[in-house]
Every structure is written in structure tokens, then in C-alpha cells.
Amino acid sequence: MIEVQDLSVSYGQQIALQNASARFMPGQFSAIIGPNGAGKSTLLKTVLGLVDATQGRVVTSDDLRDLRRSSAYVPQQQTLDWAFPVTVWDVAMMGRTARLGWLRWPGRKDRDVVLASLRQTEVDALRERPIQALSGGQRQRVLLARMLAREAQVLLLDEPLTGVDTATGEKIMRLLQEQARAGRTVIMVTHDLEAARRWCDQLLLVNRTVVAQGRPDDVYTPANIECTFSSSHLGHTHA
Ligand code: ADP
Ligand code: MG
């Protein structure tokens, strides 16, 4: 279990999150939804320890350092350098080398896992291709392969549906749901409310704080949506 308790995060004078609380369970597929600048990426990064909280904390039933070390993170595609001269295979292998540690070469098992991951996201035919030459949808699937190759128990994804067509989006949601059904904790930031309602077990509406959290049918109400997407209601909390 991952619990975010009364979290506040600032970047200098800019307050990104204030008194945000949330809970994520193994086997649960959660979607974080909210307008641009709402603090969604900040929430993921704080769970990962990439950003420090000014108040509150992240608690887990396991050791927090272990959790962070064993998490797979898929950052927003547009924050990455796609001109970097590596192939699809290299990027997927990074999911393994992150776990290998100092002075260990990838072995047979690593290559098998990488190939299986590339097949699962249907980019194995592109494995020799430089990442520069890929479309947005292909890039997203390569990032998912890298995530799968990590064999992590906690998966955090920042807008994995951006730049993908409807059919690919469905495949990605099905894949993530399967990961949750296999007992993993899956947390995804998305703008796609409809996909989140349809596929996720839990919705979190975020606008500088967690406005609402729970099962999609309970959370997706006109009042909660209004509260999340109109800035005049900042700070109110609804069940
Ligand atoms: P979202 O992912 O919901 O669009 P973010 O978590 O990226 O929102 O950002 C929340 C707020 O924090 C925004 O106002 C954004 O401009 C600000 N912010 C995010 N990252 C930084 C940073 N590295 N330095 C300064 N301000 C930042
Ligand atoms: Mg973001």
C-alpha cells in the first residue's frame, strides 16, 4: 500500500500541491485526473522521491526506499530527449540495466525479458530502429516496454495516452489493467476521463489538492468535475 498523507509541495514560491492525501493499493489501477498545472505530475514525482514535500509524507507498508527502487516510472513523453542516438532495443534494455547495478552485463534472462516486453507492446519488429525515427504512438509503446522490462511491483505513468490513436490507447489501457490484475499497483496520470472511467478501479480528481478519490461511479459527479476543473473552487474537498 502507498499512502500520501497531507502532502504539500512547492517549487520556490509556486505552490503545486497543498494538503493532498491519497491511497493506492496493490491490484488497483488508479487514474489521476485534473487540469493542466494541477499538480498531477508533482504527485507522481513526490511518490517516487524525485521531488521533496514541504509538508506531509509518503508512507508505505514496505520500506520507502525499496518501494522507490522497485518502481517503474514512465515520464511524460515530451520531457524526454528523443534525438538521443539509441535504438528501441537499447531503451527497453534500460528497464533492466537500472536493476543490474554496478558492473553487471545484461545476461540471457535480461534479453529474454526485453524481447517479451517489446512483443507485448507490439514494437519488437522495430527493435533495431533509432528512437528518433518513431511516431508518437510507437514511442509511447517503447516506454511501456521499458516499464514492463523492469518487472516492477509499482507502475507510475504520466500521460501514457498522449499522442496515441484510439486503438493503441485501448491496448495500453488493457495492458495496464492486466498489470493491476496481476497484483501490481498501477497509477496513471491522464486527460482521458472516459478511458479512466471505463478501465480504472479508482479515480483521483486533482487540482492543487485531491478533490475527490474513490470508485469511478462515485467520484465522477457533476459537482466533483466542476470543483476540479474550475479554479474558483480550489481547496475544497469532497468525498
Ligand atoms: P500537471 O502535471 O498537473 O500539469 P505539474 O505537477 O507539472 O502539473 O505542475 C504543478 C505546478 O507546479 C504548475 O504550476 C507548474 O508550473 C509548477 N511546476 C512544476 N514543475 C516545476 C518546476 N520544476 N519548477 C517550477 N515550477 C514547477
Ligand atoms: Mg504533468
From TrEMBL:
The keyword Membrane does not apply. PROSITE patterns: ABC_TRANSPORTER_1, ABC_TRANSPORTER_2. SUPFAM superfamilies: P-loop containing nucleoside triphosphate hydrolases. Residues 2-232 form the ABC transporter domain. GO terms for molecular function: ATP binding; ATP hydrolysis activity. InterPro entries: AAA+_ATPase (IPR003593), ABC_transporter-like_ATP-bd (IPR003439), ABC_transporter-like_CS (IPR017871), Metal_Ion_Import_ABC (IPR050153), P-loop_NTPase (IPR027417). Keywords: ATP-binding, Nucleotide-binding, Transport. Belongs to the ABC transporter superfamily. This is Manganese ABC transporter ATP-binding protein. It comes from Deinococcus aquiradiocola.
